[in-house]
């Protein structure tokens, strides 16, 4: 006997449609749930609402083998054979993250192909991979933020079993897996859930209508989101989730959805006996997200820190347009290293208002994920150019050194470790002509306002935009790229061998700076960085015993002074 259920609180009639047009009336139950039990039902099914004859996929479908517009397929989580029974999890504190997009990480663009590159990541020294969203979206390739089915992995990537094979293989190699998930809006095509229930509110996000978290029937919407979250963590064995754009989750309830999620994930973590991490993306600079619930916060484990990115990016590149306007000084970087945020209730020229809130110095720095590059900061540039196309290899090594010796949780973007030259551009594959045209036109219009001609901005719908964004693994065989990769490996080894280099205590961070140079004290280590285009002699707050790692040749130390060639950094032991 098979049981089918669906939540449709405002429907007057719901039918289950099986292959060949066979319909079965469903019974209305409590709280808007409909149910029917059938003997020996087939694998594929759809729902039909009221008197409309359109067959709709299950909003909670776990498998969409024919795409987001096709029927759903029954999926049995218990049928997969896991081999990670001894896996006890990977905690976020002390870890190094590696963000990757399944579709462009390998030429094949599948979960199984990604397995073939996991040994590379182990050799590099990262601890957890962070997958860009993998839930089903319309079309073949996409960043993943247009997801339509919040319970089903994308079929062209390998579907449910493919994702499980990747997680299982990662755990076998000691790698944790973080999954990026989007609950602030539905994708523009194939999202049928709002036809079943009031999943959407009358408010908007930059990407579409906001989700109904506090209006009528919002109990069911919140349950929908929380059940999806618990499914990824429990049934796919992932070790954490990165929650996309939580500032676009408007919720006026006394208990915010994020706190409710934190409570349920903590309960699951205790039950499973392994750590489960929740990482927020937010542009609010609000430390309440990562403040423990017993201290009045939401209880999430970490959040992305764009201020750290902006402080480093502007110093490395000299760019100060748009939201970079307030950044670009050594003082700014020093403030970020000491306090995580730059905007802490201070004036933001980009927003034309005060922004942010100070971080309590007792907050551990590992609750802030920092990066030189990520999918947004590369892909949302007009041509998707990486940092390696803007700065010298020497400056890339300086930036990596400052990132890896900061008190934060470092994250790399795929290919960064060898200074990949392939761009990572904004790409879509919407099959609907009107939507495709709107996306392409909107992208050109967006950058035309910043002085870019339409010919310079890649067309998201052009398949070559997607193809160009694939990593070129052959670059690793070229000396200049192998040298960068070897440097990243040595830097990561050093970070993990010296506990003071990953010490998360913000109150213990001491920063001194001058004209394009900075000295960061990390316990018994000093990090000295010269970002100038000329050599500099820098006085150290202590007597250096030896150089542990230098980003280039020519670094010399004489007691409390260090000679740094242009665009060079060094880590020294006191």
Helix proportion range: 25-40%
Number-wise, the strands total: 27
Strand fraction equals: 15-25%
CA(first)-CA(last) distance: 71 Å
Give me the number of helical elements. Answer: 14
Average pLDDT confidence is 96
Please state how the strands of the largest beta sheet are arranged side by side: 8-9-10-13-14-15-18-19
Radius of gyration: 25 Å
Tell me the structural class. alpha/beta
Question: How would you explain this protein's 3D organization?
Answer:
- The chain is an alpha/beta fold.
- The radius of gyration is 25 Å and the shape is elongated.
Briefly summarize what is shown.
With 574 residues, the protein is α/β, with parallel strands linked by helices.
Features of this protein?
574 residues; 14 helices; 27 strands; single chain; alpha/beta
Give the topology.
Elements: E1 2-7, E2 14-18, E3 22-25, E4 27-28, E5 33-38, E6 44-49, E7 72-73, E8 97-100, H1 102-105, H2 111-115, H3 118-124, E9 128-131, H4 159-172, E10 176-181, H5 193-196, E11 200-205, E12 208-211, H6 218-235, E13 240-243, H7 257-272, E14 277-280, E15 302-304, H8 306-317, H9 330-339, E16 344-348, E17 353-356, E18 368-371, H10 375-379, H11 393-404, E19 409-413, H12 433-448, H13 463-468, H14 479-497, E20 510-514, E21 517-522, E22 525-530, E23 536-539, E24 546-550, E25 556-558, E26 561-564, E27 568-573
Parallel strand pairs: 8-9, 8-19, 9-10, 10-13, 13-14, 14-15, 15-18, 18-19
Antiparallel strand pairs: 1-5, 2-3, 2-6, 4-5, 6-7, 11-12, 16-17, 20-21, 21-22, 22-27, 23-26, 24-27, 25-26
Helix pairs in contact: 6-7, 8-9, 11-14
């Amino acid at each position: 006997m098979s049981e089918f259920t669906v939540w449709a609180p405002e429907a007057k009639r719901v039918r289950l449609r099986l292959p060949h047009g066979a319909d079965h009336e469903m019974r209305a139950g409590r709280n808007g749930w409909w149910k029917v039990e059938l003997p020996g039902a087939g694998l594929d099914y759809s729902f039909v609402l009221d008197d409309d004859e359109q067959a709709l996929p299950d909003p909670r479908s776990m498998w969409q083998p024919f795409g987001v517009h096709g029927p759903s397929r029954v999926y049995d989580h218990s049928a997969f054979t896991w081999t990670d029974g001894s896996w006890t999890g990977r905690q976020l504190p002390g870890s190094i993250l590696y963000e990757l997009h399944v579709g462009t990480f390998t030429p094949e663009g599948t979960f199984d192909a990604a397995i073939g590159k996991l040994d590379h990541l182990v050799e590099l020294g990262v601890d957890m991979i962070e997958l860009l969203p993998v839930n089903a979206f319309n079309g073949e390739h996409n960043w993943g933020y247009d997801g339509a089915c919040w319970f089903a992995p994308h079929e062209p990537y390998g579907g449910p079993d493919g994702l499980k094979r990747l997680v299982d293989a990662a755990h076998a190699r000691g790698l944790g897996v973080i999954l990026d998930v989007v609950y602030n809006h539905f994708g523009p095509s194939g999202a049928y859930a709002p036809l079943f229930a009031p999943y959407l509110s009358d408010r908007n996000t930059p990407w579409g209508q906001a989700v109904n978290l506090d209006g009528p029937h919002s109990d069911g919407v919140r349950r929908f989101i929380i059940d999806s979250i618990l499914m990824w963590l429990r049934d796919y064995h992932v070790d954490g989730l990165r929650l996309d754009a939580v500032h676009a989750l408007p919720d006026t309830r006394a208990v915010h959805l994020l706190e409710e999620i934190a409570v349920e994930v903590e309960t699951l973590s205790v039950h499973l006996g392994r750590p489960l991490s929740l990482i927020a993306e937010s542009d609010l600079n609000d430390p309440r997200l990562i403040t423990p619930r017993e201290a009045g916060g939401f209880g999430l484990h970490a959040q992305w820190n764009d201020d750290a990115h902006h402080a480093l990016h502007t110093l490395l590149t000299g760019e100060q347009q748009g939201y970079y306007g307030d950044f670009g000084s050594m003082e700014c970087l020093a403030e970020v290293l000491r306090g995580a945020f730059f905007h802490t209730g201070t004036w933001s020229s980009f927003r034309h208002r005060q922004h942010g809130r100070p971080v309590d110095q007792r907050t551990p720095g590992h609750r802030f994920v920092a990066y030189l590059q990520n999918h947004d900061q590369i892909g949302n540039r007009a041509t998707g150019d990486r940092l390696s196309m803007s700065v010298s290899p020497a400056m890339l090594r300086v930036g990596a050194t400052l990132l890896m010796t900061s008190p934060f949780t470092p994250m790399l973007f795929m290919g960064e470790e060898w200074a990949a030259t392939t761009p990572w551009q904004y790409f879509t594959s919407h099959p609907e002509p009107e939507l495709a045209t709107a996306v392409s036109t909107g992208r050109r219009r967006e950058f035309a306002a910043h002085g870019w001609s339409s010919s310079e901005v890649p067309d998201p719908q052009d398949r070559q935009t997607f193809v160009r964004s694939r990593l070129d693994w052959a670059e690793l065989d070229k000396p200049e790229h192998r040298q960068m990769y070897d440097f990243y490996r040595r830097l990561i080894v050093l970070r993990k061998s010296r506990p003071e280099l990953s010490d998360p205590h913000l109150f213990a961070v001491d920063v001194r700076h001058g004209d394009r140079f900075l000295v960061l004290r990390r316990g018994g280590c000093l990090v000295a960085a010269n970002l100038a285009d000329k050599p500099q002699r820098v006085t150290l707050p202590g007597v250096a015993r030896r150089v542990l790692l230098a980003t280039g040749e020519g670094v010399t130390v004489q007691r409390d002074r260090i000679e740094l060639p242009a665009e060079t950094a060094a880590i020294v032991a006191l």
